[in-house]
Amino acid sequence: MRTSPAVNFGLPVIVSTLLALLAGAIGAAFLWLTFDYLNALSESDYATNGAFVIVQTVAAMASFVFLTIIQFFAGIAATSGRDAFDGKKVPLSLAWKRARGRRRALAGFTVAMLGGFIGSACVFFAPSIVLSLMVNEIAGVLAILVGGALWGVLSAFFLVKFAFVGPLITYERLSVKDAVKRSWKLTNQGFWRILGELALGYLLSSQVVQIIVTPFIMLVPIIMGILIIATGFGTAAFESVVLAMFSLFFIALSIAVAGLMYGYWSALVVVVFFDQKMRLEGFDLVMLREAEDEIRARTRNEGESVTKNQWLAIPQEAT
């Protein structure tokens, strides 16, 4: 992340902005089409509470499902991740250029994985809707809990087994089918360690998000009150303008935080990918040999002999 911040954070911020615009357009269209229904729904406390639970459940599922987009970010960042071992800085334009010919496969697998997660969620949560309508609400709630637990476990399993598909598509330039097979094989050994590393990274990034967002949430009502009192414009129109300004600010903050979280997690996936290659395939020895070849080529081009200090520096450059 330190050597190539544009690759690890720039691309996630761009994609997060596009997704935010798309989500905003879909949300606006949904509100426009269902405004009368939602207005009638708000008149009942029970209906409002039920709708709130549904929205929270869908939001939690969406945040989990959208982790599949890490495949795309990790695939683009894989080549710059390899250069990071040598301390080389890679701009976003170069990382994007290196993925030429593989970007379509990378995006296709990401979309297919996203569709698979959404389809499996519909399968696991459909019985709860049927039981709620045909039996009672308690049976529906129990079905949601059981279905959600099963869906979460299976989703975590496949997220780990397919974690390296993105880097394999771009770094090793494999087809989607071969990348899936190789990722499955690479994660056969050390599955629980990889799961723990990725889960810990997800929890840490989530905590960072909470730490960043919470102070702003606490300060917004205070700042709004100070602005209204200081200006003396206590009208509803002025309050609406202030609220709109802070809403735009929160949207920008959410996009930045999403870029930070996705960038951190994709970088973690790339590091775990290379770590697994070192553990199972001796990839650290491959990097050492590449560093030796680079030293030879550099000294040969410069017409100088390799000094003792240069040879001693090879392990440092490689690791």
UniProtKB/TrEMBL annotation:
Alphabetically sorted, this entry's keywords are: Membrane, Transmembrane, Transmembrane helix
Keyword match Calcium: no
Q: Glycerophosphoryl diester phosphodiesterase membrane domain spans which residues? A: 144-258
UniProt xrefs under InterPro entries: GlyceroP-diester-Pdiesterase_M
Q: Which residues cross the membrane?
A: 7-33, 53-79, 105-126, 138-164, 216-238, 244-274
Keyword Iron set for record: no
Q: Which Pfam families does the record match to this protein?
A: GPDPase_memb
Q: What is this protein identified as?
A: Glycerophosphoryl diester phosphodiesterase membrane domain-containing protein
